[in-house]
Amino acid sequence: MAKRIGKQSVKFDKSISIKSTAATVGPKEGEGPLGKYFDVVLEDILAGEKSWEKAESKIVSNNMKLAVEKSKIGMDKIDYILAGDLLNQGSGSNYGVRDFNIPFFGLYGACSTFGESMCLGGILIESGAAENVLVGASSHFCAAEKQFRFPLDLGTQRPLTTTWTVTGDGAAVLSNEDNSPYITAITTGKMVDLGITDANNMGAAMAPAAAQAICSNFKDFDITPDYYDLIITGDLGKVGMELTTKLLKEEGYDISKNFTDCGVEIFDPVSQDTHAGGSGCACSATVFSSYFYEKVKRGELKRILFVPTGALMSSTSVQQGESIPGIAHAAVIENKRGNN
User: Fold this and answer.
1) pLDDT above 60 (res 154)
2) In principle, which of 23, 206, 228, 229 could form an S-S bond with 309, CB 3.0–4.6 Å?
3) Is 14 helix (H, G, I), strand (E, B) or coil?
4) How far, in Å, CA of 315 to CA of 292, rounded?
5) Reduced to 3 states, what is the DSSP secondary structure of residue 82?
6) Which pLDDT score, from 0 to 100, does residue 198 have?
7) Strands 309-311 and 326-328
8) CA-CA distance, 38 to 69, in Å (whole number)?
9) How many CB atoms lie within 10 A of CB 55?
C-alpha cells in the first residue's frame, strides 16, 4: 500500500511505470530548441480544422492514440483517461476523447494539469483500481489568448513578463508493469496566493506555489536538492524560475545547480520572440513526454523531480479584480525503483 509521508507526499509501493509517452506540437514549438524530440510537429496550427478549439481537440485525440499505440497494450486495455486543458469546461479534452469509450476524469489544474493527471493516475494504479491509465494535457496558443487575454487580430503588445502558450498535447500511459521509468512518489501542491493580479505575469503568480511544493517534497522526505539529478518545473518561464530559486534560497535550499523549467527549454526567447518563455498545459506535458522522458529512460537522468505549475484563474475572475492563486504538483520519476 502507498505510504503517506509528511503533510503533502505519498510514496508508492507498487511499480507505477510510465510505459510510453507521445508529444505533438505546433509549428512554432517545432522550430524551437527541442523540435527534433517531438513525435509530431504540425505544419498547420489549425490542424486542418476551422477553429483553434477544434484544432486542439483533434491534437488531443491523435496524440493520445499515438501514446497508446506506442505502449503496445491496446486501447481496450486502458482503464481510465485523466486529462485536461485551459478551455472553458475542459472542452479541448472532452471533445478530444469523447469517442474513445473509456472511463474519463476531466481535470483542471491550469498549466499543472499534466502533473495532476500523473499523480492521480499513480494513485489509481497503486490502489488497485486500475492497471493502465492514459494521462495527458493540452493547450493552444490562439485559443488561450482569445479566452484569457486579447483576440490575436487586435495585435496587442505583449509585456516582457508574458509567456507564450504552447500549442500541443503531451500524453503518457501509466501501467502497473515493471518497466522503467517509474513514478515512485508524489507531492500534492497547495494553493498559494500572494496577491498577483497581472494576467500577463504568470511566472510571478506560480513561483510561490512551485517553491512551496518543492520545499515540502524536501521536508517530507528529509532530503536536499542534490538528491535529484534535475528539478524541472513546468511553466514558470524565466521570471518565475528566478523567483522560485530566490524563494527556496530563503528557505535554506539552493537549487540553482540542478534546476530548469520546461517553459525556458522549449523556446529560444530571442529568435522566437517569446519573451519570458513558454507556458500552457501543453508546455510541461510536451517537454516531459519527449525530451525528459527519454533522458530518464536511457539513464542519463536517474532521478528527477517533475513539478508542473498552474495559475488557477479564469477570464472572469481576472476581470473582477481577483488575485491569481498558484498550484504545483510534483512527481518523483526514477530510472529504477526508488528507496525514498
Assistant:
1) no
2) 206
3) coil
4) 32
5) strand
6) 78
7) antiparallel
8) 16
9) 23
**DSSP assignments along 94-116, one per residue:** HHHHTTS-S-EEEE-BTBTHHHH
CA atoms within a 13 Å half-sphere pointing along the CA-CB vector of 33: 15
Place of cell 528527477: 304
- In tens, the pLDDT along 1-46 reads 668 999 999 999 999 999 999 999 999 999 999 999 999 999 999 9
Helices (H), strands (E): how many in the chain? 11, 17
What lies within 8 Å, CB to CB, of 128 at 6+ separation is: none
Q: Provide CB contacts within 8 A for 265, sequence distance 6+.
A: 33, 34, 278, 287, 291
254-285 pLDDT tens trace: 999 999 999 999 999 888 888 778 889 999 99
Backbone angles phi, psi at 72, to 5 degrees: 60, 25
Note the pLDDT tens digit of each residue in 79-107: 999 999 998 888 999 999 999 999 999 99
Q: Please say whether the beta carbons of 283 and 265 come within 8 A.
A: no
C-alpha cell at 40: 509530431
The rounded distance, in Å, linking the Cα atoms of 4 and 102 is 30
Residue 119: burial class (beta carbons within 10 Å; 0-12, 13-18, 19+): buried
> Among candidates 251, 267, 235, 238, which has minimal Cα distance to 113?
235
Q: What domains does the chain contain, in order, with CATH numbers? A: 3-175 (3.40.47.40), 182-334 (3.40.47.40)
The DSSP output letter for 165 is E
- 172: β partners: 21, 135
Alpha carbon distance 326, 195 (integer Å): 10
Q: Please determine, for residue 194, whether its predicted confidence score (pLDDT) is greater than 80.
A: yes
Write the CA distances from 276 to 61, 202, 234, 263, 269, integer angstroms.
30, 10, 13, 8, 7
Distance CA 331, CA 135 (A): 14
Give the C-alpha separation, 97 to 181, whole Å: 26
pTM of the model as a whole:
0.94
Alpha-helical segments (H) within the chain: 27-30, 52-71, 91-97, 113-127, 141-148, 202-221, 237-250, 262-265, 281-287, 293-297, 315-319
